[in-house]
Amino acid sequence: MDQMKRLMNAGLALALVVGATACVDLDEKLVSSLGADYATSKQGLTDLTNGVYAAVRGYNGGDTYYGMEQMGVDTWTAADQVAAGGAQPWVYLDTYDAQYNSLGAFLNPQWQGAYTIIARANVVLDNGPNTEVGGVLTQAIKDSRMGEARFLRAWAYFQLIQQYGDGKNVGVTVTLHTGSLSTEAVRESEDSVYKVIVDDLTEAIKLLPVTQSEFGRATKGAAQHMLAKVYLTRAYLPWNSANKQADFQKALDLANTVINSGTYSLLPIYADLWCGTHGSTKPADPGRQGFCDVTNNFAENNKEVIWSIQFSYDPVQYTNTATNYLPVVFLSQYDGGAGGWAAGITRVLDDGRPFRRVRPTPFAIHLFNQTRCGGQPCGFGVDVVDTRFDGSYQTVWFANGNTTNPTGTCPKCTSGAAIKGSMLPGSQVGAAPGSDTALVYLTFQVPDSYRQTKAYRIGTPCTTAPGEDCGKDNDAKGMFGYAHYPSLKKFQDNGRTGGYNDTNGGKDRMVFRLGETYLLAAEAAVGLNQPAVAAQNINVLRVRAACDPGPATAAKLCAVSHKSDPAILVSAGQMTIDFIMDEREREMSGELTRWDDVRRPGQAFFLNRVRTWNPYARPNVGDKHYSRPIPQQQIQGVTGPQAYPQNPGW
After folding, report:
1. Which domains does the chain have, with CATH numbers?
2. What is the pLDDT, as a whole number, of residue 11?
3. Single pTM value for the model
């Protein structure tokens, strides 16, 4: 485990702010046991800052983050097991039905989690100026810690304002200092909240170093990237119309600063962002379409990462929210226990524990199909041009036992031939080299005659329009359904130490990366009516994604290189905000930004995207859903002459 991951488990139990209960992690140092002077000691300043990172990591754990960012959008919808045991208690976040209210799941944890980060950052910022430089605390380290606290506080406020601001200039509570507890609170204007965020990030840019010796700490580039996104988001708000073009320009300038800094670079192979290649003890995977192997040739610390949240596999730290829960929530059911969908597979560490919380909509699959084969229908013998679908999703599973599928009735049919597979030793690790294919999800339709020549089960997309779904339980149709669909593998983690049912991942969560910086630049350019600039930025990502059979670690999905293929490139005439949002899904599918992304251009845009492309949200989503309801716990906990305002319609 690297040094930063160890450091981020140290912290202090900090002051509370109204509406935010800061939980005390079991291995944190208590202020009461150390004395008040510790907060201004040389080691204390670093420990305080590490405590803010610990709160950030906890904020990203559990069900809250994916539920608030990936459900109820255009490209993701609920799978069959939104909660354990097949229950659907949070499905209203996807359907927007009447059960969705201010008492809804995840609202209070998200709200409190953000204010815990803010409270801890405030302790750093209030005590840091009085901390003397010397010994282990150099001026550069002190500046960095103050900059990191500014960055993390800005990040928390930005999370809150995107979810709970009403879009009409009513924001959230701002608390910038520690002090005595109070149960009185007001909601500041959105304008005021954005000014706090901009001020924090502007100061962070001045204080933070270009690089950090401990990977995971905030840097100058991370603050610049976030500030670009903040300006881009503020530019769309109706109360900010006088500054709209100026904010778009600032967003573009900052994104260009990060892109041109020389500090970051795109990884040459898109799939390498998330996974290494399969090791010699695993089945060969020349197309990079199988499970994500993080134990072979995979580096979390790479040149594309601008900021990531650090997690750990260390079981001693589980009580300190050190582990990553995300590896389980995006996976579909693959083992044969689910209605006999695919024989030859038992649950294994390599393929992951499939909690089946969320799944891509038919529209998401449609977006990938638009570019995957260079604008023509994919099929056998057709080169893959855009590798991002195969780099993002697992579509091939390997057998880990000997068996046969029943021939069945088409389209749920196979040849009935024998499938051979052997298990790697050790707590059901996974299939061994030479194991047969057991399950394949294709992005195109195949005739029954083809299915009848294969021993493995085949799943294909719905044949309905992209804005519809052919049903939920589609096994008999041989099509993707609410339990069986391509598995997002960006968070997949076979490095888990507790066996195949372990939910404690240690893989870092990439929050900002250079690929998104290009998207921010493109979106800002569209806002400035500079479509050629937007297309130029998109084409950088397209060329990186283009298939090339040459390098040994590249996806063997094509016979010839498509790096200079005109089919992968876009033109200025294509550049609209809808196109940028489509491209964000192809580049950043499942990366926990989608709800904020489709909300950013405004209420009408948000409602149109969700109604058009998510058939389960369409009947109910309305104006009020543009903002989250303020958690009822917050409203009930506030006393004073004025009640805490709820968002419109809630």
Report:
1. 3-83+93-263+631-637 (1.25.40.390), 285-304+326-496+533-572 (no CATH)
2. 33
3. 0.94
